[in-house]
Amino acid sequence: MEKIRFGIIGCGAVSQAHIEAIKSIPEAELVAVADVVEEKAVQTAARWGCKAYGDYNEMLATADIQVVNICTGSGVHMEPAVAAAKAGKHVIVEKPLEVTLERADAIIRACRESGVKLACIFQSRFTDCARFLYDAIQQDKFGRLVAANAFVPWYRDQHYYDASGWRGTWRFDGGGALMNQGIHSVDMIQWLMGPVKAVKAYTGCLAHERLEVEDLAAAVLQFAGGALGVIQCATSFYPGYPKRLEIYGALGSSIAVDDRVTELNGDRFTESEKEELFRKMADKEAARNFRDPMAFSFEGHKKQIEDLIRAIKEDRRPFVDGEEARKSIEIIMAIYKSAAEGGEVELPLKEDPEHIKTVHGR
Ligand SMILES: NC(=O)c1ccc[n+]([C@@H]2O[C@H](COP(=O)([O-])OP(=O)(O)OC[C@H]3O[C@@H](n4cnc5c(N)ncnc54)[C@H](O)[C@@H]3O)[C@@H](O)[C@H]2O)c1
Fold this sequence. Notes:
There is one protein chain. The protein is an alpha/beta fold. The chain folds into two domains: 4-123 and 299-320, NAD(P)-binding Rossmann-like Domain (Rossmann fold), CATH 3.40.50.720; 126-291 and 328-341, Dihydrodipicolinate Reductase, domain 2 (2-Layer Sandwich). 39% of the residues lie in helices and 22% in strands. Helix 4 (78-86) links the parallel strand 4 and strand 5. The protein binds nicotinamide-adenine-dinucleotide (NAD). Nicotinamide-adenine-dinucleotide is lined by residues 9-14, 34-37, 40, 56, 71-74, 76, 80, 94-95, 121, 123, 164, 180, 293.
């Protein structure tokens, strides 16, 4: 079996999930890792048996790799992703794709121009829960969709922000509870419900000090299909609770807690289909910690990397490609614009909000 060879840029917290995922896939091989703090690359390489680089450009020029995993802080995805694409490597970027539409578009453009695949990590989409809800909506099992609500009532302590140079900054985290933590739910709600037409929002920093960005965001959404929605994301709800996704239709509804369907109602669901779903949900281990940023398994990353390998071998689009990953950034930018300027913001957005452009010197 011909293996697909991977190199990782950024040897911090999330790289662990990428490495364990690659190591668990027979068709994948970890060849090299790079980190601007060379010692981190050296330690990671020694532990996992691969080559270390202090400069990712050197890795791109010399390592025999086909795919590059971008695991740097969110506002430092663009430079290594564009360099990797220009070097002819397929690219898989951690969420968010980037912290502005302009920077995300630069990655999408570079990958398109180089003819390489681009995938962005949104592991929640690869759960049984997400697949069931998506199929149920496609098969019109809920009837006309009326509302979708996503709540992310998490907690991050002050140390989480203070210990990192990039977290909690506009420039390098791109926002707070919404852009960093809530984006998985923003992606999920738009994937299930379709495009968002308009938003109205408030954000605040209520429970942290020395934080530029929001630790609470609350938004009302109008979907193009007519349904309404609410998104509330926090890193300020001590001690943290499971995230929740509610879908309400004229003929059925569901509630999912921590990526598990806990309520499902509607005459269009058969008893055997419900039994099978709840059996699958019972198999998933319940999370108990909503304060620890790394309290998740690498299973979702594994499924997504497997999807990219199939996309390369079959020459098709990855399941979550650049255009898909851009959609959640656009909704988040609309929410930030509404919170900063007041009133309703309609989508599609022509460009990043003014206060965010200023942060990036534009
Ligand atoms: N999918 C998820 O659920 C999930 C979970 C956690 C983090 N993330 C995402 O992963 C990304 C990284 O987060 P993290 O918590 O691992 O951050 P981190 O700060 O722990 O690690 C980032 C690493 O990148 C390195 N780095 C920075 N600039 C570099 C450069 N120019 N060249 C090479 N290395 C460089 C840093 O030295 C550091 O080791 C973020 O975008 C974050 O949003 C995703």
